[in-house]
Specification:
Blueprint: H1 2-35, H2 39-46, H3 49-52, E1 58-59, H4 65-94, H5 100-107, H6 109-142, E2 149-150, H7 151-168, H8 171-180, H9 186-191, H10 193-206, H11 212-252
Parallel strand pairs: 1-2
Helix pairs in contact: 1-4, 4-6, 6-7, 8-11, 10-11
Subcellular location: Cell membrane; Membrane
Main location: membrane
Family: Belongs to the TatC family.
Amino acid sequence: MADEQGTVTLVEHLSELRRRLIYVAVVFTVVLVAAFFVVRPIYQYLTINTITGVEIKLNAFSFWDGVGVYMQIAMVVALGITLPFTLYQIWAFVSPGLKPKERKATLRYIPYVFLCFLIGIAFGYFVVFPLAMKFTAGLNQELGLIETYGMADYFKFLMNVIFPISLLFELPLVILFLTQLRILTPQLLRKMRRVAYFILVIISAMITPADLFSAFLVLIPLIILYEISVLLSSRVYKKQLAADAKRAEEYSG
């Protein structure tokens, strides 16, 4: 009987997961279709020279370059817009197994995840990407190379710069979530500060051009994000200790 109940529960969970995935797929498809109407202005904005300061003329090296870039921009727009809805569906799927307080706490993460993602994209595009373009253009000129940019390579380079940074900007939320799960503590984060800084130095050097100024410019906000994470972790940890003390008092009383 227990096995039958377990089987039914598993089937129900899989059905619920399939339903949530269908919701996400439908919304994503609708948004993707709508995104095609804004691809052209986005493309024109992403290729203007005022951001990078580098004069570029994009070229198509295959018949499918234009189609590929068009689809890529539409996909990115659709993914960004549907991100909050996708996160909500994930929350709705796991929420039945959470306590009421945990449900409220995790639900509050959704808008902040989206906000941090947008801030990371903005920082990557307006700060890091122009530095990377100026560095590569300057190096090409020193080597006497003729700059002929393919549109597919340009957008691949753009995404490779922006997306790692947008994910790094989720660091405070990840640490806050792990603290709430009691996996991390502020004491451990402070103890690991030197190691964390070293890792952030490596990351900033990897996602920026090979000059110290650019790497340092990216490293500063990453360190600030880490310190914000430590502060948020401390606040959550203090609340946890207070709640534990209150429960211990009630139990002993």
